[in-house]
Design goal:
alpha/beta, single chain, 9 helices, 2 domains, TIM Barrel, binds zinc ion, globular, two-stranded antiparallel sheet
Length: 255
């Protein structure tokens, strides 16, 4: 095969396969940035930190309660006198209502994380609204209040969803993942190293005390939280909750 023939073939290969693949990559990257990135504000205000110069962070947990890990985290936080913010799917609260009630009584803040955590439910405004209302009914039943904070499952936003969330008097909240592989439970030192690197004044640091609202072993996360709070305390950081960093009430009264 001559040089020019193989060059032609290479060119065809590039045009037919590589270029579209690259284009698809750019598209997927842009879609991720627009709809799922913790940092993108393109669809509206989606805070991942509060405005403060103080060395204060909010430790947050998604996808619980999930036992025994959520209670282990609660007892660890009690040892250090730290209040955290727990974004809980309604379906998980129904599984362990007493755990959510204990967190609430201990002064932790409970935020809504919708109801089912099923990805397909967050692709349409109508089903997002149903999920918000279904979760509200669970919080009303077990806590007697409605959360003001709402973290969209998967951090997924679609056009109009942030405005719709606000129309329910909910504040959409993002957060910085403690470690990109936390869901696979790498060793606690790695998770903690990631979490500590995200600490800056006002940061919302995101851990998972459950996985996809289905439970799962979170033992490494529990250990990582201990390492993280010890390191941050030694670095002069204090801990607060997301509502305080945003300067809003943690709960809405019942309708
Ligand atoms: Zn989640």
């Amino acid at each position: 095969m001559g040089y020019s023939t193989s060059c032609q073939k290479g060119g065809t290969l590039y045009r037919k396969f590589i270029l579209p693949l690259g284009g698809a990559g750019v598209c997927i990257g842009s879609l991720y940035w627009l709809c799922m990135s913790p940092y993108s504000q393109l669809q509206g205000d989606f805070p991942y930190h509060g405005d403060t110069d103080e060395r204060l962070v909010a430790i947050t947990f998604d996808d619980g309660p999930n036992q025994p890990y959520t209670s282990q985290i609660a007892s660890l936080l009690a040892d250090y006198d730290i209040k955290a913010t727990f974004f809980q799917p309604g379906a998980c609260v129904e599984r362990y209502p007493e755990v959510t009630q204990e967190l609430f009584s201990a002064g932790h803040v409970i935020g809504s994380h919708a109801y089912s955590h099923r990805f397909g439910k967050y692709l349409h405004l109508k089903s997002i609204q149903q999920e918000i209302e279904q979760a509200d009914a669970v919080f009303a039943k077990y806590l007697g209040v409605l959360p003001s904070l709402y973290r969209p499952p998967w951090l997924l936003r679609i056009p109009g969803s942030l405005a719709m969330i606000r129309s329910h008097l909910l504040q959409p909240v993002s957060g910085e993942f403690c470690h990109s592989l936390e869901i696979f439970q790498p060793n606690p030192a790695r998770i903690a190293r990631g979490a500590v690197s995200k600490a800056k004044p006002g940061a919302f640091i995101l851990f998972h005390d459950g996985f996809d609202a289905k439970g799962g072993n979170r033992a490494q996360t529990v250990k990582a939280v201990k390492i993280t709070v010890e390191r941050l305390s030694n670095a002069g950081y204090g801990f607060t909750t997301v509502d305080k960093l945003l300067g809003i009430p943690a709960y809405r009264p019942l309708h």
